[in-house]
Amino acid sequence: MKQETTVAFIGAGSMAEALISGMTKTLYQPEQMVVTNRSDAKRLEYMQQTYGVRIETDKEKAVSEADIIILAMKPKDAAEGIASVAHVINEQQLIISLLAGVTTEAIVSLIGKQVAVVRAMPNTSAAIGQSATAIALGHYATDAHLAIAKTLFETVGIVAVVQEQDLHAVTGLSGSGPAYVYYLVEAMEKAADEIGLDRAVAKDLILQTIIGAAHMLKATNKHPSVLRKEVTSPGGTTEAGIGVLEHYRYQEAVIACIKRATERSEELGQALLSSVK
Ligand SMILES: NC(=O)C1=CN([C@@H]2O[C@H](COP(=O)(O)OP(=O)(O)OC[C@H]3O[C@@H](n4cnc5c(N)ncnc54)[C@H](OP(=O)(O)O)[C@@H]3O)[C@@H](O)[C@H]2O)C=CC1
Ligand SMILES: O=C(O)[C@@H]1CCC=N1
């Protein structure tokens, strides 16, 4: 990334913060980034104080001066947010959209110019350089744009290049994915309380259990079912515990969860299209 490249974030919420936190630890200087939002001035001040980025209440100014524009508002706010800056966007700029479910075609149409759009689905682990991000090319985006986006997201984790139609599934799987893991940890912490373990001790044990299992998956490359069987002694505690998970159809619940999240991504895209018709 050349030093003088400017990245404007439209939206200063959780995902913008995760990306800025990760990006400023690597290739990017905080001064290369300008952050704007709808109205929350305190939030902008927080971003400036925490990360040293530039902030701008004048969205048009932030956008017109940027090389890369990152759309980081909620899908429901995208039509209004994009329309408010479309007139200052030009075809030399690269638009990177984080909007769940919203197609590059819809974004091009809202901007009303033949502008390069790369659609991305990172996750909040970007904050510590551990995002699993997928990116896809819009109609007017070239391989050079893809390379720029890939370099940008590689500063915050791994990047997979996918066809745009696969981004709904990616959103349901790895975009929302950290929340599924946090939900499991919440349940483990509740269970630890109920079985009478000291909270601080349980917290450390749970965390290391999750980290250890994730590292085992990566380091051994063994199928998760093989690793699970290695834990499960016949007639032992794991078998008894997994039996309860099977009774509650745990795997079916997780599969249904990811399918529903995928479907919701499609709905969010449709809702935006209906709102601008
Ligand atoms: N959170 C996540 O894990 C992930 C989110 N995403 C996507 O990232 C996007 C942002 O999500 P998230 O950060 O969670 O959302 P947040 O609700 O945390 O933040 C949304 C931001 O958008 C701003 N905003 C709203 N309307 C406008 C507007 N018209 N012009 C400028 N800024 C506006 C808000 O400003 P204000 O507060 O002033 O209203 C706020 O700063 C979404 O599209 C989501 O689908 C993608 C991957 C993962
Ligand atoms: O919940 C959402 O809609 C966003 C997209 C993926 C993660 N958070």
Automatic annotation (TrEMBL):
Alphabetized PANTHER family for the sequence: PYRROLINE-5-CARBOXYLATE REDUCTASE, PYRROLINE-5-CARBOXYLATE REDUCTASE 1
Any Gene Ontology biological process: L-proline biosynthetic process
PROSITE patterns referenced in this protein's UniProt entry, alphabetically: P5CR (PS00521)
Organism: Anoxybacteroides tepidamans
Protein name: Pyrroline-5-carboxylate reductase
Domain Pyrroline-5-carboxylate reductase catalytic N-terminal: residue ranges: 6-101
Reactions performed catalytically: L-proline + NADP(+) = (S)-1-pyrroline-5-carboxylate + NADPH + 2 H(+); L-proline + NAD(+) = (S)-1-pyrroline-5-carboxylate + NADH + 2 H(+)
InterPro entries per UniProt: 6-PGluconate_DH-like_C_sf, NAD(P)-bd_dom_sf, P5C_Rdtase_cat_N, P5CR-like_CS, P5CR_dimer, Pyrroline-COOH_reductase
Gene (name only): proC
